[in-house]
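The passage that follows is intended for readers who have already worked through the single-chain material. We present the inputs for a multi-component assembly, then the predicted structure in tokenized form, and finally a short commentary. You are encouraged to pause after the input and sketch how you expect the pieces to fit together before reading on.
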Amino acid sequence: AQTVTQSQPEMSVQEAETVTLSCTYDTSESDYYLFWYKQPPSRQMILVIRQEAYKQQNATENRFSVNFQKAAKSFSLKISDSQLGDAAMYFCAYIGDRSGNQFYFGTGTSLTVIP
Amino acid sequence: DAMVIQNPRYQVTQFGKPVTLSCSQTLNHNVMYWYQQKSSQAPKLLFHYYDKDFNNEADTPDNFQSRRPNTSFCFLDIRSPGLGDAAMYLCATSRDPGTDVLTFGAGSRLTVL
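Having made your guess, compare it with the prediction:
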């Protein structure tokens, strides 16, 4: 079975600084998608960024970018110019071409932004 | 705005007293999911509907049931809640199964006394 590991339960960053959240995954599938979702306190989970495994170029969405290392099965999220509104739980997620409808989530990283 | 709405946001029930959580969507998505999320844990898929087709995860207890009377609504029924069922229940939708992104509701937090 596929597994997603987030080894940092908690992270903190100074406002306006850059932080990187780590995610590794284990799979034998060749085609898959990776996601970072953000869950602010008491609010709904929203998609931050999405990466197709067949694309070599790292996905970027404004201040959010990923470092996708397919051979190493690593998918880290970089948040640049951190803002107070970035404080949330961040989940890494995976779905493969043979996963059916099963998204596999990591256990999350709680990000604190220090003013 | 098109969205996924869950009700109630907070539900308190007594041990063994049935509870129903609802989810509605205006996205016209084909797939609706129910996840259970306990504190500091990853969301765990309970089951999902692809249109009218119900798909139960192998390790979802029989205590959990679901109904999808139409495209827009999906319900989670917990027949006899135990203390271990206290959690956040997340409803999510996707346009198509497989690789499409998930759109989540805000969740329903269940407390069992």
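Commentary: Chain A touches chain B at residues 4, 9, 32-33, 35, 37, 42-47, 50, 91, 95, 97, 99-103, 105-108 (CB under 8 Å). Chain A has no helices and twelve strands. How closely did your sketch match?
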